Prior knowledge:
By secondary structure, the chain is α+β, with helices and mostly antiparallel strands. The protein has helices at about 35-45, 50-60, 130-135, 165-175, 245-255, 310-315; strands at about 20-25, 65, 80-85, 100-105, 105-110, 145, 155-160, 180-185, 195-200, 200, 210, 220-230, 235-240, 280-290, 295-300.
Amino acid sequence: MTRRAQAPPSPLPQRAGIDPVRLRLPPDPDGTWPDLGGYLTARYAAGAGAEAVVRLLATGGIVDRDGRVCRAGDPYEPGAHLWFHRDLPDEPVVPFPIRVLYRDPHLLVVDKPHFLATTPRGSHVTQSALALLRRELDLPGLSPAHRLDRLTAGLVMFSVRPADRGAYQLLFQNRRVHKEYEALAPHDPAVALPRTVRSRIEKTRGVIAAVEVPDGVPNAETLVELTGTAGALGRYRLTPHTGRTHQLRVHMNALGLPILGDPVYPQVTDPAPDDYRRPLQLLARVLAFTDPVTGTAHRFESTRTLLAWDDRPSWESGAAGPPPSGRGD
């Protein structure tokens, strides 16, 4: 087996906690690209890409592996590595803090608020837990060990050193982390609990909602337990044994118990990205595992709380502003 050559380190530092883009120039056996500017302009011709490339080349924003500024007229060199920073548009600031629960030389565990993305994605780039923590804690090598949905609050693990990243990610890939979630949803005495829900969940890229495939081979499994009630409201402990996209939300919706504040299940809505009035009432409550680097047995529990029972009427009425404890902050 041929091992892929490791990419050289970036000559550019992070910007606002975001790594620069690395580009490796492809082979050009027919000599299609006489110079670098022609190739880059064609590659990024869609939308405003070509205009941005012209600006980067003119202002010295593209460099090679040695940090040398690249110009449009430079000869095209197949296999060369280039680096540059994309423009970072302004984003609404998520006004809720990230709580650091644990930190050692290898591992960082935080309590993420609702509405904050774990990693840069789509329109949430600098306003992501990864970018913010890299800046605030001066940890440029920080990497997520797993992902937590932007709308879900609770525990997220990061590896501090790049050398440890694979070990922590394998914990999740090999299902060696015990995870428990807490959710608030309608209470229906006709739904017999506890029960283990198994189904096949599929998610199409570009489609916001995942779907269950009738009679499909199960690829998702969740233990659902009712831990308390208040009138028509139930508090649930959800223990996933797999990690499909939106798994807990899909399974609760399939039981006829959609999680409060869910903008996708059972019906897709389109709240503004800075509308924090109706947080999804889902919390990553517990992570327990044996540290693969230090051998330490860890159990972490979120310090956040979901919607208090007596906050429910005002929250459901859509009153201005979030409920007093609905953000978990």
